[in-house]
Amino acid sequence: MNFWKKFEEGIEHILRLDEPPHKVALAIAIGIFVAFTPFLGVHLIIASCIAWAFRVRIRIAAIATLACNPWTMPFIYGGSLILGNYLVGDGSSLKIHNIIDLVNHLGGAFLSLDLSTFKSFFSALLTAAKPFALGALILGSFASLISYLIAFFAFKHFKIEKDNP
Question: How far is CA 133 from the centre of its chain?
């Protein structure tokens, strides 16, 4: 079974749920927002906890985090850095050489296990953290709002058609 067939079946399953459109759309928006955070490897856990707190479908929120994947990651994280640099604007803008330094310091820190190398890594990381966090917060909020609106109206429309054959 190919990817698109599985994807279509997943959408049909979500559409058949007996949930109000608001809850489905909120679960999707939570997953999209979490996908924009820099916490790679724990997106599913974070989305599941937030979905549980909001009492929406955990599975839908977890699936929506898959919006951050190897094909979209450069755009999501690159856009977050660019927007964050633009908004911070205090002369601490992140340049490509800062990112290269960060990667080099990370590799060096793990290879040498030297305390000064770890300090260099965290110094380079802090240079990137402020603009990245700000950009990710804004882009994630915007993307989750748009995804909520699209999902809400799409599911509301589907429910109306389903109830009135």
Answer: 12
Phi-psi region of 55 (alpha: psi -120 to 50; beta: other; left: phi over 0): left
Residue type, 81: L
Count Cα neighbours of 66 within 13 Å in the Cβ-side half-sphere: 6
Count the Cβ atoms, other than its own, within 10 Å of residue 27.
28
Q: Which residue bears the tokens 């802090």? A: 126
Q: Which run of H or E residues covers position 98? A: helix 96-112
Question: Quick one: CA torsion of 111, 113, 117, 119, rounded to 10 degrees?
Answer: 140
The predicted model scores a pTM of 0.77
Instruction: Please count the other Cβ atoms lying within 10 Å of the Cβ belonging to residue 67.
Output: 20
**Which residues lie closer than 8 Å to 55 by C-beta, 6 or more apart?**
23
Closest CA to 143 of 101, 55, 52, 80: 80
Residue-wise pLDDT tens digits, 30-76:
999 999 998 888 999 999 999 999 999 998 998 899 887 778 888 88
The domain segmentation of the chain, as residue ranges, is 3-73+136-163, 74-129
Q: Residue 50: which of 17, 27, 69 has the closest Cα? A: 27
Asked if 134 contacts 88 with a C-beta cutoff of 8 angstroms, the reply is: yes
